[in-house]
């Protein structure tokens, strides 16, 4: 079973690529969904968030992500503190997902996450796929979801770049003593174009 790290900036189309891979037999897990579940289910995490960021980041159903986002996107130290609380818990659930996928006999387990390289989560993966798209197209997509252009631009620029991820993934591969491929999928055009790129690499049949 291959373990694939799937990453890309907000609005690039990671979920589109993940859905195509899932339709071809891959097991897929989304780190953002894991975080949603943790915020709802992990009482210790909510207590830690309240202690660090204040009671206003909590909500009746777990965590007020909008309030928390305003804090961490504006303050690098707050963002790092949040990641120190959340990433180890996310990694534990990803490890469980990998073991369950291996037991089920699927050909590939896909971990979709924006921060998978920076957090060290990609160390458990055999390869990395990066989804990219033209900035103007991404902005239009995010505005179509109701995000204003200023906020969309801020979120895009706060995240990593393909070049940085490739360099970091390569450094990690050298440290691990592994040769691990990197694939870049351009999702700027049609779903057929994106699907054809996935076909070209033919990692799942």
Question: What would you note in describing this structure?
Answer:
This protein is α/β, with parallel strands linked by helices and 205 residues long. The chain has a single domain, classed as Rossmann fold (3-Layer(aba) Sandwich), CATH 3.40.50.300. The strands form 2 sheets. Strands 2-5-1-6-7 form a 5-stranded parallel beta sheet, with helices on both faces. A two-stranded antiparallel sheet has the order 3-4. The chain starts with a strand and ends with a helix. The mean pLDDT is 92.
Give keywords.
205 residues; alpha/beta; Rossmann fold
Figure out the total of helices.
9
User: What is the number of independent domains?
Assistant: 1
Strand order of the largest sheet: 2-5-1-6-7
Q: Report the principal-axis shape.
A: globular
| Helix/strand structural class | alpha/beta
Strand content: 15-25%
CATH class: Alpha Beta
CATH superfamily heading? P-loop containing nucleotide triphosphate hydrolases
- The averaged pLDDT comes out at 92
The main sheet comes to: 5 strands, parallel
Would you count the extended β strands for me? Answer: 7
Assigned CATH architecture: 3-Layer(aba) Sandwich
Radius of gyration: 17 Å
Order of H and E elements: EHEHHEEHHEEHHHEH
**CATH topology name:** Rossmann fold
Straight-line distance between termini: 13 Å
Helix coverage percent of residues?
Answer: 55-70%
């Amino acid at each position: 079973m291959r373990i694939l790290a799937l990453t890309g900036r907000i609005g690039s189309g990671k979920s589109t690529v993940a859905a195509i891979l899932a339709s071809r037999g891959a097991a897929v897990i989304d780190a953002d969904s894991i975080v949603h579940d943790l915020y709802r289910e992990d009482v210790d995490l909510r207590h830690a968030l309240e202690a660090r960021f204040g009671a206003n980041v909590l909500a009746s159903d777990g965590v007020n992500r909008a309030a928390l986002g305003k804090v961490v996107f504006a303050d690098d130290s707050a963002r790092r503190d949040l990641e120190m609380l959340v990433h180890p818990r996310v990694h534990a659930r990803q490890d469980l997902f990998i073991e369950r996928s291996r037991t089920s006999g699927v050909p590939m387990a896909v971990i979709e996450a924006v921060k998978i390289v920076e957090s060290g989560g990609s160390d458990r993966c055999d390869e990395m796929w990066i989804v990219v798209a033209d900035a103007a197209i991404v902005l239009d997509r995010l505005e179509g979801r109701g995000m204003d252009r200023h906020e969309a631009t801020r979120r895009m620029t706060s995240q990593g770049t393909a070049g940085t991820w490739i360099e970091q993934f390569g450094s990690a591969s050298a440290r691990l003593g592994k040769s691990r491929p990197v694939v870049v999928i351009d999702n700027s055009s049609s779903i057929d174009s994106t699907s054809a790129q996935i076909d070209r690499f033919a990692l799942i049949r």
